[in-house]
Amino acid sequence: QKEVEQNSGPLSVPEGAIASLNCTYSDRGSQSFFWYRQYSGKSPELIMFIYSNGDKEDGRFTAQLNKASQYVSLLIRDSQPSDSATYLCAVRAGTASKLTFGTGTRLQVTL
Amino acid sequence: DAGITQSPRHKVTETGTPVTLRCHQTENHRYMYWYRQDPGHGLRLIHYSYGVKDTDKGEVSDGYSVSRSKTEDFLLTLESATSSQTSVYFCAISEGTAVLTTFGSGTRLTVV
Fold this sequence. Notes:
Chain A is built from no helices and 11 strands. By secondary structure, chain A is mainly beta. In chain A, strands 2, 4, 5, 9, 10 and 11 form a 6-stranded mixed beta sheet that branches. A 5-stranded antiparallel beta sheet of chain A has the order 1-3-8-7-6, with no helix packed on it. Chain B is 0% helix and 58% strand. Chain B has strands at 4-7, 10-13, 19-25, 31-38, 42-51, 54-57, 64-70, 73-78, 87-94, 102-103, 107-111. Chain B starts with a strand and ends with a strand.
């Protein structure tokens, strides 16, 4: 079992809709959770992080964390074509700020 | 990319040759990392450093070595390149355990 699991997609949503991206993790000691966006041929860039159970909102993005269910999600409201990218879920546990990544979900926002 | 530079950006090398990739940061961050990214596997940690001359292995360290003689530089060496090491390599930096990771632009390595 992979430590961090994501559906590879592609997840296709129409412009203006809400995109929901999901991630599960296996290590109950995980402390911090990150969402990165990666455009094709580019490096990952951080878009959201969450440490506590519940929701965290930043503009059109909302990260949701449920530690009891070992589940973290990313909602993108009013999806735009520029949101089309691969979204990587990452989890940190232990020292040295090491991150364990999922394989990513490819999002396609259609016109 | 937040003061982090990788070189070279692209490299083609032959099987069995040594290869060194360089990561340079201007942020004075303590932690530096090398990841590789492959289709179907996502980003996987190769080695990381938590200070000058302090390094440790990640999940896919076989065939790789690293060195950090200065805060700003973290070198990744493939002692004898193999085709399975064809990948995109990303360097990343972070200031501490509670802080976030920033990635370099990547090095695309092809071993023929």
